[in-house]
Amino acid sequence: MTPDLAPSVRPFAADSAAASGEQAGWWRSAVIYQVYVRSFADSDGDGVGDLRGIRERLPYLAGLGVDALWLTPFYASPQADGGYDVADYRAVDPLFGQLSDADDLVREAHRLGLRVIVDIVPNHTSDQHVWFQEALADRPGGTARARYHFRPGRGEDGELPPNDWESVFGGPAWTRTTDADGRPGEWYLHLFAPEQPDLNWDSPEVREEFDSVLRFWLDLGVDGFRIDVAHGMVKAPGLPDIGRTEQAKLIGAQVLPFFDQDGVHEIHRAWRKLLDSYPGERVGVAEAWAPTSERLALYVRPDELHQAFNFQFLTCDWDADAMREVIDRSLAATASVGAPTTWVLSNHDVVRHVTRYGAGDGELGRTRARAAALLMLALPGSAYVYQGEELGLPEVVDLPDEVRQDPAFFRGDGQDGLRDGCRVPLPWSGEAAPYGFGPGGSWLPQPEQWAGLSVEAQSGDPRSMLELYRSALALRRQLPGLGDGDMGWLQAPEGVLAFSRPGFVCTLNTLGAEVTLPVPGRPVLASAALEFAGGTVRIPSNSCVWWAV
Ligand code: NOJ
């Protein structure tokens, strides 16, 4: 029996601002490519990617068909957490180049029609930041300490941390300082590594400084900011105990006194005003973890940020019902505030989705990843592509311990100790490592099998992941029904998702077996080969098809 593809429910209000297209802005439909700077392209042969390397490869990104880049932190930093420990927010780390390289990169990207979003890290600084050095030298209660969270310890001699909070990277979220006379002193708060002390956003000086830093980069021409830990800048008053031992997850949705506090929204509202005071639709993107889609939507209210990463989609299992539920919830939540939804499958903090979806079977993972890419790029809103996913790179699971750099790996039970495996430098060309990454080596070793996954090896091969992404991104520009806008579910058998958009239908078979459906239109792109018979089409297992109707 072949079930029909009749329209069923519409998951969100057609009269929402998003659906009417009233607030059309580039970011509402944009595909944004995440460049993990140290692993994209190395111009000088030190084995670490840099800004010039990115600039030289911009034609590749323009040709891929993305709209914008998001660059991970390239600021002056001791690199205790891959640059998310910033010592000077206005300087480029020599590892990545100099300020003029950032300027050149932004100009050249704009010339090629690409926008540039940079990372901003406001929850914490590096412990080498001049402010933190001043704070250490200051006395308890001094003005330099007021920029951070310093507290006396508990216990008879202050030998116990001020509260029971744990660091996301494992171990207590507090480190004790040593006074000038060599005696143990106050403790300071760090939700991440000890080298990343948390700023106190109650301090007007902190707020003024970040306004100035944002202006610095906006003046240089960047198109917006990806805001690191956008849900963590404000802590519950009094820094109350949690009352249980619970390590906060980097990718999690726990209710905790240091995440998703209502006070953060005031900061984002002020930043939105600042962004809007510049021409050219500069945007703010929240890296925010909230317990529900509804709480997350608060970050993208009309007077706050433009987008928030949809991690619920990233963490969703390969299961049609679960995916449909996440899609519905995400669309409903963002529609309620008139914001576009975002879709993301991978980033520099999670196991790459080829590996996640494959659960030990590489071929299955690749097959599902092809389908997932077409699903993601057909859904309403904006999408994020993490460098290398367009090449179908798997997670590198066998890195030797001595090359690892993720701070969580070194903090005992740090749950995120596997983040290096998704950060291995990209293979561009050639038969041997570093596969055109740069004239030297690469800071993490690339697997031998990556010759076949390089940009060069995949270019022109119609069956490759790269050509699938190129085709999908080109079609996304041509087909007016894609990007921001409306969608409606179509009836489909168990395990299959089918939805329509203006002039377009997408069908996803999540099952391990093929399904037969009535042909819904003209096939324009498929993640696997289709077979037609009569008025029906056989859709292979774990595959996705785009149809023009
Ligand atoms: C989120 C970033 O994506 C991650 O890489 C970093 O370790 C933490 N924030 C802390 O800045």
Compile the SSE list and pairings.
Elements: H1 17-20, E1 31-35, H2 51-56, H3 58-64, E2 68-71, E3 75-76, E4 88-92, H4 99-111, E5 115-120, H5 130-137, E6 150-151, E7 174-178, E8 184-189, H6 204-220, E9 224-227, H7 264-276, E10 283-286, H8 293-297, E11 307-308, H9 311-314, H10 320-335, E12 342-344, H11 353-358, H12 362-378, E13 382-386, H13 455-458, H14 465-478, E14 488-490, E15 496-501, E16 504-509, E17 515-518, E18 522-526, E19 531-533, E20 536-539, E21 543-548
Helix pairs in contact: 6-7, 12-14
This protein binds 1-deoxynojirimycin.
Give the total of beta strands: 21
* CATH C-level name of the largest domain: Alpha Beta
Q: Determine the structural class based on helices, strands and strand pairing.
A: alpha/beta
- The percent range for helix content is 10-25%
* Sheet of most strands: 8 strands, parallel
Overall, the morphology is globular
User: Low-confidence parts lasting 5 or more residues at pLDDT below 50?
Assistant: 1-23
**Proportion of strand residues:** 15-25%
Q: How far apart lie the N and C ends?
A: 23 Å
Count of distinct structural domains: 3
* Discrete helix count: 14
CATH superfamily of the largest domain: Glycosidases
Ligand catalogue? 1-deoxynojirimycin
Mean pLDDT: 93
**CATH fold name of the largest domain:** TIM Barrel
Taking all Cα atoms into account, the compactness measure Rg is 24 Å
Domain Glycosyl hydrolase family 13 catalytic: 34-419
InterPro entries: GH, GH13_cat_dom, O16G_dom_2
Protein name: Glycoside hydrolase family 13 protein
Family: Belongs to the glycosyl hydrolase 13 family.
